[in-house]
Amino acid sequence: MNAEAQISVAPPSTADFGLCARQLAALRRDAESLADSPEHEDALALIRGSAIEPGLEAALQADLEADAAGELRGRPGSCGQVIPLLLDSASNVARVLDSFWCHDFIAPPRAPGGEDAASTKDAERRAYESALDFYEGRLPPAVIAWLRGAEDALATATTLFLRHYMRPFRILTTVVLVGGLWMLLMVSTYAIDSRRLSMTFLWVGVLASAATGLWMFVQFDRDELLSRIGRTTAGEVTFNGGLVRRVFTWGVLPILSVAAVQYPSVTQSLFAWLQPLMLALR
């Protein structure tokens, strides 16, 4: 299953936000327990100033109890106590990480090891999978572990809030295509004025909706953030069963439905050709 489909499965629950809240709370505790090092004082000061809200776990517990009692359901605009704190904390952590991602933070050179000069040059020239790989050997292992934990927490928060946009898109695409097909069925079934004009309008509408939906799903598959979440190659379309299913559901099926209504003789010929196969499978 691709990342877009995974994110769109269900809206995030209080327990889902709780996972991110616990990750951020653990980062706050780990930042306070980092050992002092004069050589890495700037990095430690930057991490300890991440300003993660201390009341995250208490707010999460209150929201879980309210959710269990049904107090957060069916109340428009009610997002509980933990989400505003989570947003502020994640924003502060992102600002800390940005200094490391952009290499604005000047780290000391790598400690000399047993590697020869050739392997050291190869390591310097390699393309880093993560921006934090640059700091391997330049910062203490505990600091690197904190930064990678911060990336995980920020990725969790990003994924949770992406659901608010991905899931409505799927619902809206379904409503538009199904509505267009129902209108097409109505025009073909009932005798109405300007039938040809209505059919032309519906042809254009269904084809445009199908093309737009397919284009959006392809862009989702190519998106760098969603590709990292789904562990696929960014900027490329992953040809798998999920892609074939989306192409058939959102592209081929609507076009075949329009063609079946517009050209009923073709549909009858197709069913007549498939009838022996269907009888043989019984």
Find the count of extended strands (DSSP E, 2+ residues).
0
What does the radius of gyration come to?
27 Å
- Report how far apart the termini are: 32 Å
Mean pLDDT: 76
Q: State the major sheet.
A: none
What's a quick, concise take on this entry?
The protein is an all-alpha fold. The protein contains eleven helices and no strands.
Q: Can you put this structure into words, describing what you see?
A:
This protein folds into two domains: 157 residues, no CATH class; 119 residues. Helix content is 70%, strand content 0%. It has eleven helices and no strands. The longest helix is centred in the middle third of the chain and has 49 residues.
Task: Produce the secondary structure layout.
Blueprint: H1 3-7, H2 14-32, H3 41-48, H4 56-68, H5 82-101, H6 117-125, H7 141-189, H8 195-222, H9 224-230, H10 241-262, H11 264-281
